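User: For my dataset I need records formatted as: sequence, then structure tokens, nothing else. Please produce one.
Assistant:
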Amino acid sequence: MALHSFQPHLHFFPNPKPRFPIATVRCSTNGRDPIHERRRLPPPQPPLLLSLVASAAVFLVGARARACAVNPSPPSLPPQVSVTSENSVTESSNLDDERTEDEELRAAFESWKLKTYALTVPLRIVTLRGSVPPSWIKDFMQVQGKRMKLISELQGSLESIFSDLSSASDKNSVEPKSAMAADLVSVGDSWISSAISKGLIEPIKNAEEQDWFKSLSNKWKVYLCRNSKGELDSNGYIWGAPYRWGTMVIAYKKNKFKQHKLAPIEDWGDLWRPELAGKISMVDAPREVVGAILKYMGASYNIKDIDSQVVGGRRAVLHNLTMLQRNVRLFDSVHYLKAFGVGDVWVTVGWSNDVIPAAKRMSNVSVIVPKSGASLWADLWAVPAATRFTSHKIGGRIRSPSPLIHQWIEFCLQIARELSFKQQVTPGASPFALEHLPAEPSQQSTKGPKMETNLIDGVPPPEILSQCEFLEPLSEKALEDYHWLISSMQKPRRSWIRSILDNINLRIPTNRLISWPR
């Protein structure tokens, strides 16, 4: 009877905590322990047959038996022993079942760990063609392994990347194949202020905590930290990560100079020589043209007010601009190297990443950084502002960029990546070379076509580099001065420019042209 009375208290559900016996955690609905409750039940009455047997035993056993009959012990002990035994057996059985279940789960988990799943982490980058060595892509994929899917797309100019970002912003929509949907894009330092102010890129999250940012020099950190208007701000955010840089350079044909007994070009002032009238081509970039004049006059590229900071003010700068215009045959960022290549001009002024590859394919060409310093340019990795769009077409990228962006930036800034620049596989220099200057040209850089230059592995000598400057955003007053200078320039006749371009295009096949300059 006792055994059957306790059956309803048994549980048929698995123990959620195998380490604890079921008996220790089981409780009744009223919050009391059912086992202790059972121990306080009144003892059951002995059956009639048991009483008769006990009475007969009194007469047969004697005095000892009579004493026991006078004070009989509670007959409830046997049922209690029976209940305790049943409870222990039940708990032991449950523990065995739980151990078996735990072993099965452990075996299933070990089997799951051994399985291979096709889970990949994507990283999509849009880069300027020729700015990233092909070996970087291959090496990074080997380092990350098969669980990383790297998609690299090339565009011909920084302007085209900027235009792609602007198009998505203007339409307020983003397509999966657009640059806005990429995790990282190449942005030139001259474009970054506009990209920030127009909301085309977003700050790189947690950049200050990353090793790649901590390893950069203070000069880089100051230049990369900006506010939402794109202005330099020490309390701003980090909007880009540099992966290469270079300078403005002057290239000239040594054979032409020797033939006409001209002194080599060494500084900006040489561009005003009368014997070079009509023999110069130059990029059509106001910051570079006016900046060269400011350097020639002993001022800075990043001057805030020309009238108050330059001797003679705007009038003096305009006079030098007019004189330079007489010597420059072509202001054009597309065709200036074509004119130099066919010999229509003897001197060209442009960015090192464009001029140096072209000069290496020619003979008797010298490339120099002016002694008084030049402007610096940089190519940066930036994160497109795709998170501000509400779209389901680009998957997880709409929430945040790939978690691999910091690994990619860190990889691009490793010391081993400098070799591609030193071997001149890709024009430019590592960001670390801005502070740690090479003492002499590396052995690898002396191979290939002979080119006379004062650059050391793509870096100006220390005494010249100290006078070079990154182009900072113009102040309102300086921007007004630039507009006045450009609008006051003498405009050449359109037919004169058109005849030069037509003549150049007829003499150079288009399949031999280098990539468009920035």
